[in-house]
């Protein structure tokens, strides 16, 4: 029965609300789609009955998912990570598949059911894991590299599984090959025929496609019509998928091959951006239909199977992956983190489970339990990864030694530093800033999570060590209590918020400057205690404006003045600066207003006074902001009463600041 407009509007409304809630709590959107399907499906609220047309439409989401996977298929990347991808990745998929298959067969099902359920259980969520590791800045960490390598192999393993599972659904028996009059097993012949087909299709598409794809896209791109380019992408994707389906293979395989062909052209990134809305929309619909197929009555009656499925996808899968990672040379802590990252089901597990259901390879209650186990494991994963550090420290005693050794190394390297600047991140921005600081004889100490970058920079004599600046112990070891400022040089709001929280707890008066991509998170970071937030887009626009005005003949001094006015409006701290021990003190410098932080001690004169009563305006000094414990910095009113522990940020000239400090602390 086709889905009616009323039901479709309800589906869209529920999806929008649920996904907004998921994003607010930093959960993957796919979980929102699954929850929507569970709530509005025929087995819960019943707003939408199972619709065959909706399921067919959702299949195209898988087509576009496989297409984007093909776009990301990179032979150079595979070669660079071949030990992890083809070594650890093969071992992970094989070990999980064999273990689950054995468990299923011991439960009384045949080997086919065990094989297909093992294949589904071997898959993890590429979208979820890569997003969570990226948010934590752990993609370049050893466990992050392990996880990405294994996920890459899992994505490749999906292709043969898409061929094998439909073949396994054929009934037992033998057939006779007419020409040679040979009787063979029907299943083996189907697998052999599928293998021949895929080899033939691969040879034809990859040999002819390489010669056709680039000239064809060049021809379309020369027309300078965005809608034509979009139509061409749909034609190539769906056309290739149709060809493989006609050859007796799957739509998803054809889409994967189409992505591989386009990945070799210069249009790869443009295509990926254009196709993303279609992929996300249809893939979301796929997850909704998965949720709709969950029968809650079966789940309640078969709760034992659901719990077993969740245990196999959780502790058992985590233990298997951790053991394999350790076998391949990872430290115990890194191996456990790899297991925590991948110990869940994934989006391709749903694809394989859907194929299993179509072929009738597994009884419906077990299939429902397996689907529920995948969903529950994905719901648990964000919390598990978030607390993985604490769990690893409890389970791996050697992790304490490794952590202590790393902290000792950081502490030894930073021991001589005093009045230095802590650079969080040593990428391009961090390195450029480090060079400028060095030219001004301002000492810095950098922390970065890329071990290769740290090794090369340290070998060149740079003051940089491996460490996560978003961890309390690392910041303390880096000399937080002796530092003059903290600069977050990378654009990662989640990590920056952690650093701001730690700095506020440990040393409230230290200024923290944060880099961000645009203006969307400025208020959030400011409220968290950032002294200033530097927007890349804002600074880029100012440089474009200055060059444009100069090329148009505007005098240089007027250009500088205009840019300065904009920056003074945008950045509060641009009117002053924090004074250091090694700064020049010529007459021009003395006349410039500067910033000075001052914390009120228990015996400070200003305790209990309002700002108006101190009459700092007579000294030409103003209080720019105040930070009180457990509150973000704010601009106070004149009737604000000061108390012990308040951190004041004063603005004024050097001599006036000294007089103001004496007044505030001693009443002189």
UniProtKB/TrEMBL annotation:
Record membrane topology: Multi-pass membrane protein
Domain RCK C-terminal: 583-666
Transmembrane segments: 6-22, 29-48, 54-73, 85-107, 113-134, 146-168, 188-208, 228-244, 281-300, 306-328, 340-360, 366-385
Superkingdom of the organism of origin: Bacteria
Membership in a protein family: Belongs to the monovalent cation:proton antiporter 2 (CPA2) transporter (TC 2.A.37) family.
PANTHER family per the UniProt record, alphabetical: K(+) EFFLUX ANTIPORTER 3, CHLOROPLASTIC
Annotated protein name in UniProt: Potassium transporter
């Amino acid at each position: 029965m086709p889905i009616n407009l009323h039901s479709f509007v309800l589906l869209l409304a529920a999806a929008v609300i649920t996904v907004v809630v998921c994003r607010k709590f930093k959960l993957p959107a796919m979980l929102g789609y699954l929850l929507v399907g569970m709530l509005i499906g025929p087995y819960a609220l019943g707003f939408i009955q199972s619709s065959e047309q909706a399921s067919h439409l959702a299949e195209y989401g898988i087509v576009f998912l496989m297409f984007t996977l093909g776009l990301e298929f990179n032979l150079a990347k595979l070669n660079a990570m071949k030990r992890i991808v083809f070594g650890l990745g093969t071992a992970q998929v094989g070990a999980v598949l064999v273990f689950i298959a054995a468990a299923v067969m011991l439960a009384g099902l045949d080997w086919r059911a065990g094989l297909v359920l093992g294949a589904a259980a071997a898959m993890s969520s590429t979208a979820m894991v890569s997003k969570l590791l990226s948010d934590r800045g752990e993609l370049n960490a050893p466990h992050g590299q392990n996880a990405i390598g294994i996920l890459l192999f899992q994505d490749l393993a999906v292709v043969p599984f898409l061929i094998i599972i439909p073949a396994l659904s054929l009934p037992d028996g033998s057939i006779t090959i007419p020409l040679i009059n040979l009787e063979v097993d029907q299943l083996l012949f189907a697998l052999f025929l599928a293998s021949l087909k895929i080899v033939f299709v691969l040879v034809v598409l990859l040999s002819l496609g390489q010669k056709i794809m680039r000239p064809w896209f060049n021809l379309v791109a020369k027309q300078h019509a965005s809608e034509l380019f979009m139509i061409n992408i749909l034609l190539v994707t769906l056309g290739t998928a149709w060809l493989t389906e006609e050859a007796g293979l799957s739509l998803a395989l054809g889409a994967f091959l189409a992505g591989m062909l386009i990945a070799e052209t210069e249009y790869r990134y443009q295509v990926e951006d254009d196709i993303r809305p279609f992929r996300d929309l249809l893939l979301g619909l796929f997850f909704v239909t998965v949720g709709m197929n969950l029968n809650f009555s079966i789940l309640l009656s078969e709760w034992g199977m659901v719990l077993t499925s969740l245990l196999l996808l959780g502790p058992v899968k985590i233990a298997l992956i951790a053991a394999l990672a350790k076998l391949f040379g990872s430290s115990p802590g890194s191996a456990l983190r790899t297991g925590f990252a991948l110990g869940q089901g994934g989006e391709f597990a749903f694809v394989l489970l859907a194929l299993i259901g179509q072929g009738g390879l597994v009884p419906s209650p077990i299939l429902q339990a397996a689907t529920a186990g995948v969903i529950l494991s994905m719901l648990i994963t964000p919390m598990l990864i978030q607390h993985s550090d604490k769990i690893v420290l409890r389970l791996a005693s050697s992790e304490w030694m490794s952590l202590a050794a790393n902290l000792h190394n950081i502490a030894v390297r930073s021991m001589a530093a005093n009045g230095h600047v802590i650079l969080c991140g040593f990428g391009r921005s961090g390195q450029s800033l480090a060079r400028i600081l060095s030219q001004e004889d301002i000492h810095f100490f950098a922390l970065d999570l890329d071990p290769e970058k740290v090794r090369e920079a340290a070998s060149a004599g740079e003051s940089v060590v491996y460490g996560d600046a978003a961890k309390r112990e690392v910041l303390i070891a880096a000399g937080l209590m002796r530092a003059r400022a903290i600069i977050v040089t990378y654009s990662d709001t989640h990590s920056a918020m952690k650093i701001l929280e730690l700095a506020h707890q440990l040393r409230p008066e230290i200024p923290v400057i944060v880099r961000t991509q645009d203006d969307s998170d400025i208020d959030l970071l400011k409220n968290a205690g950032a002294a200033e937030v530097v927007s890349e887009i804002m600074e880029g626009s100012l440089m474009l404006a200055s060059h444009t005005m100069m090329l148009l003949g505007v005098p240089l001094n007027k250009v500088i003045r205009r840019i300065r006015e904009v920056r003074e409006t945008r950045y509060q701290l641009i009117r002053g600066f924090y004074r250091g021990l090694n700064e020049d003190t010529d007459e021009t410098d003395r006349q410039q207003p500067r910033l000075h932080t001052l914390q009120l001690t228990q015996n400070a004169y200003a305790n209990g006074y309002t700002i108006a009563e101190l009459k700092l305006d007579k000294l030409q000094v103003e209080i720019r902001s105040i930070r009180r414990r457990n509150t973000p910095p704010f601009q106070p009113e004149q009737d604000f009463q000061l108390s012990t522990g308040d951190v004041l940020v004063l603005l004024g000239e050097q001599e006036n600041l000294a007089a103001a400090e004496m007044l505030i602390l001693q009443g002189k």
